[in-house]
Amino acid sequence: MNISSSPVVILGAGLAGLACALRLHKSGKPYLLLEKSDEVGGRIRTSKTNEGFLLDHGFQVLLTSYPELNFCLNLKKLELQYFNSGALIYTPQKTRLLANPFLHPCHLLNETLSNFVSLKDKALVVKLVLSLHTNAFEKQKPESALSFLKTFGFSEEFIESFWRPFCSGVFLDKNLDVDSQYFVFLLKNFSTGRVAVPKNGMQQIPIQMSEQLSNSSVRLGVDVKEIHTDAVVLADGEKIKASAVVCAYNPDVGDAVKNEYRSVVNYYFSAKKNPNWEKWLMLIPPQYGLHLNNICVMSHVSSSYSSNEDILLSASIV
Q1: How far apart are alpha carbons 125 and 131 in whole angstroms?
Q2: What rounded mean pLDDT belongs to the chain?
Q3: Among 5, 7, 122, 165, which one has the highest count of C-beta atoms within 10 angstroms of its own C-beta?
Q4: Strand 218-220 and strand 31-35: pairing?
Q5: Rounded to a whole number, what is the distance in angstroms from the first to the last CA of the chain?
Q6: Given this model, what pLDDT does residue 257 score?
Q7: Which pLDDT does position 184 carry in this prediction?
Q8: What span, in angstroms and rounded, lies between the C-alpha atoms of 173 and 224?
């Protein structure tokens, strides 16, 4: 086969590999997507239990304002189910609510009268959200998210009670060492979009992406033994010529360095008694020593996550 007429071979059918395949597919370019497992999605998976619960593998959500979404997905067909905008904050004395007043104006008076968050921190939140939609951070210096928040003026109390558990759940980084530019990018997406899950679980996202591809250009259950610039060799000895090879995962071959991932352990619980948490995500500040990072009732967000009368609780440990 001539290299020039060979397909682009993409290794890994997680979101990166699927997005790459979609770009080539919509551009009319030949491609071949190879995946080691028997399903697409990579780390985005959803299992259904015998009891009728949908369990996402890890606490995962979709931000509707991600720039690539409209190219890759039909959001209407996903039947997105939305979290409330804001969060419940656990304290030993009382659970406090920090709601987005623009989406939940009924909570505005309660927040104004509450002394849980200082007036200065409330004003800084408003200032930060407004600044995200200007060019205020275009030339920001390289620093950690934690350093950025302190420099912006947030109190230690507010950082520990809100920003640390919130950012830990987003970045899986308790120390908030993530680069501030990426932090600002995601904050802007949080401020302009909604947090949601597909009605039938997060794996509906990669499934929908794969359904747009040609069946003949996707091979599952394929183990790649060797990677070259112009070909890949499979474990069974088959050699596939390639005009280019896209490695859409972190390879453990050749001189590649194996990455150490940050991780989250997600526990699910079913219960008869229904807590009055509505569709809020509850953040657990680390100073209380409970080890949990966040809790929510997934069956409140999407009723499809429980096909019986029991509720489904999700609890995450970063």
Answers
A1: 10
A2: 91
A3: 165
A4: parallel
A5: 48
A6: 60
A7: 94
A8: 32
Widest Cα–Cα separation across the chain: 73
What span, in angstroms and rounded, lies between the C-alpha atoms of 101 and 13? 39
Residue 181: closest CA among 139, 218, 223:
139
d(CA 32, CA 35): 10
What stretches of the chain show up as alpha helix (H) in DSSP? 15-26, 69-72, 75-78, 108-113, 119-131, 145-152, 156-158, 164-171, 180-192, 204-211, 298-301
What is d(CA 10, CA 66) in angstroms, rounded to the nearest whole number?
Answer: 23
Kindly list the strands in the beta sheet with 311-317, ordered across the sheet, starting from the edge strand earlier in the chain.
96-99, 86-89, 282-283, 294-297, 311-317, 265-271
- H-type helices in 49-179, by residue range? 69-72, 75-78, 108-113, 119-131, 145-152, 156-158, 164-171
CA distance 23 to 71: 9
Burial of 227 (0-12, 13-18, 19+ CB in 10 A): middle
- Is-contact 41 207, C-beta < 8 A? yes
Query: What percent of the chain is predicted at pLDDT more than 70?
Result: 93
β-bridge partners, 269: 313
Q: Are 243 and 6 in contact (CB under 8 A)?
A: yes
d(CA 202, CA 123): 35
pLDDT above 60: residue 120: yes
The SS3 assignment for 57 reads coil
Question: Would you say 108 and 101 are in contact if contact means Cβ atoms under 8 Å apart?
Answer: yes
Chain centroid to CA 89: 21
86 strand-pairing partners: 99
Q: Which helix (H) or strand (E) holds 67?
A: none
pLDDT for residue 114 is more than 90: no
Opening angle at CA 178, ends 176 and 180, nearest 5: 105
Per the structure block, which two tokens stand in for 314? 């999700």
pLDDT score recorded for residue 1: 44
The CA distance from 27 to 23, in Å, is: 6
The string of pLDDT tens digits covering residues 15-64 is 999 999 999 999 999 999 999 999 999 999 999 999 999 999 999 999 99
